[in-house]
Amino acid sequence: MALPFFRITGGNRLRGNVRVSGSKNASLPIMAAAILCDGEVLLHDVPNIADIRSLAELLIKLGVDVERRSDGAIRLLVRDEMNVRAEYDFVRKMRASICVLGPLLAKRHTAQISMPGGCAIGDRPVDIHLRAMRKLGAEIDLVNGDIVARAKRMRGCEMFLGGPFGSSVLGTANAMCAAVLAEGLTVIEMAACEPEVVDLANFLNQCGASINGQGTPRVVIEGVKQLNGCEWRVIPDRIEAGTLMVAAAITNGEMRLENCRLDHLMAFVDRLAAVGVEVERKDNVVIVSSARRLEPVEVVTQPFPGMPTDLQAQLMTLLCLADGNSIITEKIFPDRFMHVPELSRMGAHLHKEGPTVIVQGVKRLSGAPVMASDLRASAALVLAGLAARGETRVNRIYHLERGYEKLDDKLRGVGADIERCEIDAPDDE
Ligand code: EPZ
Hints:
CATH class of the largest domain: Alpha Beta
Radius of gyration: 22 Å
Helix content: 25-40%
Bound molecules: ligand EPZ
Number of domains: 2
Number of helices: 13
Largest sheet: 4 strands, mixed
CATH architecture of the largest domain: Alpha-beta prism
CATH superfamily of the largest domain: Enolpyruvate transferase domain
Strand content: 25-35%
Shape: globular
């Protein structure tokens, strides 16, 4: 088996235009919601990445025709409603497969989904998802590692979806999908406010649902009898946009981002401004440039509209080169620090105390062979390689390619010295 890696030689200042792809985290629940629709769904700007292909495979097993047209749009049409099972092999590869739970229960009244395990960024419980399904009238059992759920007809209700770490993005997505065909009114308190949840709600309304309050902690859903299909363009990927902003800043370059919604990145842009990175909109382009001297800052990750946990690793990489000590606290996934030992191999001075990392700024990072792990930690290592002196090899970039579409092409297009290579896996790999 060939193992892909990136070979990066640091030091080039990135300059030029890049188009941000459509959002992975909006596309996944919207594709799953096609299970609810009696009619064709046509989605534009869904990124061509591994996680999307994995979900498409699962949906095909669940009787949904899924095809990527030559113009890049994804067409989905429910063909047969017999299968309601998401096996361990799918869910093990991608825990976001849990987002078929709500649609299957609402439309086919039963679902059997392997319990998602943990992953590189920590435990990934689904108690909030199951609480929502039970509140709507489903019976849920755990049988041999599978969630087995049954519901004759979902009944609208009031539910509170807060957990120990605040709201749940996919928990809210599952609750909305389960409620849109329920009998009567559903009120979700402490709903997630992320733009991806808003995009899903707006997509469902385009299909004939009646959802209000999306983007606020209180979402109200009036059940309807049936949903049609619709044509929809998913929102830009705010996490890819934030990652590219750091690429511009860490190389002291200047990048112009197309298809970038600044209103989805307020907290992150606020932190970048405090560091000394200028982000401004001109016409329909976002321009990012940075002062040579980077200021240290405090960072605490929060649910939207707070600082996104998915940009914590990327911001940490930038702060490795700030002039002083920064403090980063991870309040969503307290163990989400797989990038810390790898950045340290590149000369970063990082000191982890539980969910907090003290980042002591250094003058330079130095290139080294490093290991990608979770998706965003992998992106952080690429960013470090762009700024480091010498060559960096980021191994196991299949983690990265789950969520970034052609990142090496995009970076090379603005002057980065990066190439995607492959080696044959040694037997023990
Ligand atoms: C979504 O995951 C995103 N994934 C994640 O992005 C993102 O990090 C996360 O939201 C937080 O913003 C997709 O949208 C596909 P949560 P999700 O439920 O919905 C706890 C990436 O890099 N929790 O909002 O699974 C949970 O452990 C990925 O693109 C419960 O306690 O995250 C966490 O601490 C990584 N019980 C917190 O809530 C539950 O039932 C937030 O998790 C569910 C979650």
